[in-house]
User: Fold this.
Amino acid sequence: MKSVNRKSFWLSVAIKVTVFVVLIWALYKQVYQNDQVHQIPEQLFAPGPGKVIPLLIVLAFAMLCNWGLEAAKWLLVMRKLTPIRFVRAFKAVWTGVTLGLFTPNRVGEFGGRILYVPRKFRIRAAIVSLIGSFSQNLITVAAGMYGAACYLLYIEDAKIQVVLAVLLLGAIAVILLLLAYYNLEVVVALFRNNRFLKRVYSYTTVLQEYSQADLSRLLGLALLRYLVYTAQYLILLNMFGAELKVVDGFAAISLIFLAQTVVPSFAIADLLTRLPVAALILSEYGVPVQVSLAATTSIWILNLIIPAILGYIFIIRYNIFKNRQS
Assistant:
């Protein structure tokens, strides 16, 4: 028994050290060697500390609200499995952010979260967590298609037929997503009737326990989180000197978010994808390239890198192999 515990201890240490090394290396490559990051403090504080510091406090609070809403979403979907306190849900979300940095489209976030779930519920927890992602992606697609139509209208030589086609395709996509979202029993039936999927059917039956009211509350939290994130982006753009109307800014940012969701990438290298996409879209609204790059880099650091570093603290304190049978 002591030998097993000793092996588990050293394996836990090895995993934590590996995550730390990869995190430091990635930060060095993406942040320290990024000339754009070095220019941010000078650009940011150009108007004077008195004007900037209050806005930075607002942005930090918004970051906590952003991930607090995500924790509330996860708490809501987990209630059908096992009771979890909000603080534990918050730790799970930030641990997921850390592990998600190194996986395509941050799918590793699920692995980080289920560490905080009793072992017997972990497979079901991974499945129900997909509902939270589904709700967020639904909002992103709906807002993104609106942003795409507005973007095309903003381009002088865009034809109205193209704009209407985008709106129609967007409406169809959102309706289909809503039908799938509010009819999860169809997904369960698919697992039940498919001989290849039937082996995991018992884990999917929990999806039938979510009422339309539960799903609507989840969608509402996803919308609030989306609005918080968008507000952060708008504030940063204006802090760096962009003169964007709220309507134009929302449309541009919605399209940027949609593009980032569609294009597969690793979150730790996501900056390489975000920068050119943001610069291309925002340039059509008269935002200088250096401003869009500074704002996009700042929100990447604020909403992903800082939570990932804090999430690593939870990983250090977490005993990965404790109570494996619980």
In short: The chain has 13 helices and no strands.
